[in-house]
Design brief:
Elements (H helix, E strand, L loop, with lengths): L1 H25 L5 H17 L14 E4 L5 H11 L39 H14 L6 E6 L6 H12 L5 E7 L2 E2 L2 E2 H5 L4 H7 L3 E6 L3 H13 L5 E6 L24 H8 L5
Parallel strand pairs: 1-2, 2-3, 3-7, 6-7
Antiparallel strand pairs: 4-5
Protein name: Transketolase
Cofactor: thiamine diphosphate
Pfam families: Transketolase_N
Length: 274
């Protein structure tokens, strides 16, 4: 397992490099939240989820919902690494005519299960998928990544209530709790603490982790799959802009990309010099 964790950590590092390069090229997109979520997305695609890049619509795949759709670069670099489309496509992020738009587009991008970006809606969609799969007698699982600022949306809690009511134990929500949103500190904009207590109150199984500790992420995903009778919320404490000190814990890098002066230092931080 130690070797597996080390492999995932190295893959996450390379994916961070790809995020930084992609956003620098596009000069449009969301840096902070992509870097805070990438460890979890990496663990999902390369450790936990069943999926097939050669057959994106494979019926036996697990479903993934990036509810915080503005972190699309994290998903795109992961899909490219998996082989859903050529890595060269990343350099066309947000370009007119590109299949890689600012938020995930299930109609244009191979490997994307659902369009997201309107915050608060992703958990409802994930819950519907999970219920549908159960009604069909299938064992597929559904994973949704949410932002902590997104929890300010009331629809999240309607979905949380419904998922617990219907005992959707094939549903796992991962909360990217980096404490920041576009307008500043989540606690000051609209406090959502305690996230864990709220999900517990709604009847969810809750696991708290360090969202950048790959060992903890892998263990939590395995625990979530083993838990029966209730959906699981993995509340991950993360750092916005993780991996690059220029961007870390800065709300100003929510929707700002690396400029020409910042790129070399950002790549150096990530162990990349080209």
């Amino acid at each position: 397992m130690k070797e597996k964790i080390a492999d995932l950590e190295e893959k996450a590092r390379r994916l961070r490099v790809a995020i930084v390069k992609t956003l620098h090229k596009s000069q449009s997109g969301h840096t902070g939240g992509s870097l805070s979520a990438i460890d979890m997305v990496c663990a999902l695609y390369f450790h936990k989820m069943r999926h097939n890049p050669a057959e994106p619509a494979w019926d036996g795949r697990d479903r993934f919902v990036l509810s915080k759709g503005h972190a699309a670069p994290a998903l795109y670099v992961t899909l490219a690494e998996c082989g859903y489309f050529p890595a060269e496509d990343l350099m066309m992020l947000r370009r007119l005519g590109s299949h890689l738009q600012g938020h995930p587009d299930s109609k244009g991008t191979p490997g994307v299960d659902v369009c997201t970006g309107s915050l608060g809606q992703g958990l409802s969609m994930a819950n519907g998928m999970a219920l549908g799969l159960k009604l069909d007698g299938k064992e597929n699982r559904v994973y949704a990544v949410l932002g902590d600022g997104e929890l300010q949306e009331g629809q999240i809690w309607e979905a949380a209530m419904a998922a617990a009511h219907y005992k959707s134990d094939n549903l796992c929500a991962l909360i990217d709790s980096n404490g920041l949103q576009i307008d500043g500190d989540v606690a000051k904009v609209m406090n959502v603490s305690s996230i864990s207590d709220k999900f517990k109150a709604f009847g969810w199984n809750v696991i708290e982790i360090d969202g950048h500790d790959m060992g903890q992420i892998v263990a939590a995903l395995d625990q979530a799959e083993a838990h029966k009778g209730a959906p699981t919320a993995i509340v991950a404490k993360t750092v916005k802009g993780k991996g690059v000190h220029l961007f870390e814990n800065k709300a100003s890098y929510h929707g700002v990309t690396p400029n020409d002066d910042e790129l070399p230092e950002a790549l150096r931080c990530l162990g990349c010099c080209d």
